[in-house]
Amino acid sequence: MTIDSNETPALDCQNLTYSWVEGTEPVLDNVNIELKRGDRCLLLGANGAGKSTLLRILAGKRLTKTRSCKILGQDVFMNPPGGVVYLGTEWSTNPVVRSDIVVSHFLDSVGGYRHKARRDRLLQILDVDLDWHMHQISDGERRRVQLCMGLMGEWDFLLLDEVTVDLDVLVRADLIDFLISESETRGATIVYATHIFDGLRKFPTKICHMQLGSTPRGLLVWPPAGGKVEANEEDLFNMALGWLREDRELRREKEKAKGRIRGPKTDTKDRVTFFEKYDYSQDVRR
């Protein structure tokens, strides 16, 4: 992708390598992504490919030794820019958001009163009731509150990690339309990791495939040149499916070389399980 030399890239991630423990095999290896303002990038890849780790690094939540990631021209950890919002799945496990607090009070506690117009628009899009109590609502409804909380400010860069998985089809479609509008009217940039492709026909402008912690294909422009608009969603699904099959084969080869195999074990001749050696005669039930 070519970016105007006079324009600071929205995201400039070059040769990013990251390991959980120094000296061990990296979970991210030579990752390269460059986006311009207004881009909407789908981040695709198998479970464990490194998508969540990458998003958390871009959000400034993990420190890397290599200063190789910048958002809006600023280092994501040492000099994090304003206007960056990260929304991940771990939010719903926070005990605070499952406590007995009314949604209206919850949103006001994070500044909802300062963004009333945008907050009210999102309340309508996400179909949120301000009188809900956070401990009484479903996971999907709690996710809607999270999205309203995170999106009601005028963010410039949005990182989404599988946060639409709990939404019903209608709310998700309306949210996607909102995100497209934000990128087109305000030049906001979005990186969205998901395994759900329904309703994404109009969403991406770029696609990034993460494979075993790397980005071997670089960025793909979407829709592809000469592609049929009405076929994009099916094409996207089939392309992702092909990538995932390729990822699985590569991962299996890599694990086999290390003596690790997923699935049923075939070398069970000398293996004694807990259930085989357990003395059930001593299991007295009253």
UniProtKB/TrEMBL annotation:
Membrane is among the record's keywords: no
Q: Identify the keywords attached in UniProt to this record, alphabetized.
A: ATP-binding, Nucleotide-binding
Among InterPro entries, the record links this protein to: AAA+_ATPase (IPR003593), ABC_transporter-like_ATP-bd (IPR003439), P-loop_NTPase (IPR027417)
Record flagged with keyword Cytoplasm: no
**Its Gene Ontology molecular function terms?**
ATP binding; ATP hydrolysis activity
One matching Pfam family is ABC_tran
- Enumerate the spans annotated as ABC transporter domain: 11-237
Protein name, please? CCR4-NOT complex subunit CAF16
